[in-house]
Specification:
This protein is of the alpha/beta class. It has a single domain, classed as Mannitol-specific EII, Chain A. Strands 1, 2, 3, 4, 5 and 6 form a 6-stranded mixed beta sheet that branches. Helix 2 packs across helix 3.
Length: 154
Amino acid sequence: MGGICKRLPAECILLDCHDPAAEKEPIIRRLVEALAQVHGISDADQLVRDIMEREELASTCLGFGCAVPHAHSPILKNTVIAAARLNPPLNFDAPDNEPVSLVFLMVGPENSAVLHLKLLSKLARLLHDAGFREELLKAETQEAFHQLICRKDE
C-alpha cells in the first residue's frame, strides 16, 4: 500500500502558514502548489477545483483542530499527501467550531477509493492522539514533522 510517510515528502510540509484572507482555499492552493512542484502535477488549478468541489459536499474536519481535505482527480496517477501547520489557526467550518491548526491534503486518482479510505482512516487515528498532535504543533522543521509522521506510520 505505501503509507502516509511515503506519500508525504518533507518538501510538501508547510510550517506556520499564514493566510491573511483567513480562508481555506488559499491554504489548499499552497498545498497543491507544493505537490505540483514535487510531483510534476501539470494542472494545479484543476486539482484545486476538484478539492474545493469535494469541500462543498461536507466538512473534511476531524475535530481537535485537524482537517483532511481530500479528493479524487482524473489528472493524478498516484495518491499524494501534503501537510500544513497553520499559525494562526484558521476557520475551516469544522463541526466542532474549533479553528484548524493541522491540515493534511490527500489527493489521488479516481480508481483509488480503497487506498484513499485506508489512508484517511489511518490519518484520522493518528490525529486523534492528543500527544501526537502536540508534537506536530511543536516540530521545528519540515524534517522533524516528517519524522514524527514516519515514526507513527510504521
